[in-house]
């Protein structure tokens, strides 16, 4: 009887709606907390010095991946810290795109999403720095090898003239000789004439 009662059904719907609203509010609060923690972690990451040698990078990578895996296993309360450590490992890895694909397979989905947010925040900060919004880290000074003095238009014209001259010389040289696809009789005739 109770199942078919309109008042009972109405009460169930109200309860479900309240539960859903509470879950949505908690998710929004968690998202705001995560964003705040990620911003703080990003500042900390920017101040952190990168390892210099390949051996140091390898050790750094292994330490942070191990720490991140341990933190991710502890549950949602540690996901931001785990994502931060995964991101630290990602920064020193030679092929970051491949590592992101590995993370996607082995990390819990919320941790992977946080790592992606960190990469997006980093690229946004770097893009803002390039646009003049935030001070960018000092770039390495240009070297003599980085400077290209040649004029591209003149080089292209000179190369085109050289290619045309080479093709013309090849045509003149090959006028008397048969093509590589011709029969053996033609080759014999050319070699007998020579």
UniProtKB/TrEMBL annotation:
| Database matches in InterPro entries | MAS20, Tom20_dom_sf
Q: Which residues cross the membrane?
A: none
Biased composition, Low complexity: where in the chain? 146-155
Q: Which residues form a coiled coil?
A: none
Q: Compositional bias (Acidic residues) spans?
A: 156-173
Q: Where in the cell is it found?
A: Mitochondrion outer membrane
Which UniProt keyword terms apply here? Membrane, Mitochondrion, Mitochondrion outer membrane, Protein transport, Transmembrane, Transmembrane helix, Transport
* Name of this protein: Uncharacterized protein
Native organism taxonomy: Eukaryota, Fungi, Dikarya, Basidiomycota, Agaricomycotina
């Amino acid at each position: 009887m109770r199942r078919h009662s309109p008042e009972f059904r109405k009460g169930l719907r109200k309860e479900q709606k309240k539960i859903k609203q509470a879950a949505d509010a908690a998710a929004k609060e968690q998202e705001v907390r995560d964003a705040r923690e990620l911003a703080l972690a990003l500042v900390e990451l920017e101040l952190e010095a990168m390892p210099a040698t390949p051996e140091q990078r390898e050790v750094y990578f292994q330490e942070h991946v191990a720490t991140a895996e341990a933190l991710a296993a502890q549950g949602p309360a540690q996901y931001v810290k785990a994502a931060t450590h995964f991101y630290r490992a990602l920064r020193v890895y030679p092929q970051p795109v491949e590592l992101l694909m590995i993370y996607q397979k082995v990390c819990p989905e919320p941790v992977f999403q946080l790592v992606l947010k960190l990469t997006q925040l980093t690229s946004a900060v770097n893009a803002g720095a390039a646009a003049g919004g935030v001070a960018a880290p000092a770039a390495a000074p240009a070297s003599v090898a980085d400077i290209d003095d040649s004029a591209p238009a003149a080089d292209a014209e000179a190369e085109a003239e050289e290619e045309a001259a080479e093709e013309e010389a090849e045509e003149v040289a090959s006028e008397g000789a048969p093509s590589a696809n011709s029969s053996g009789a033609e080759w014999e005739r050319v070699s007998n004439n020579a």
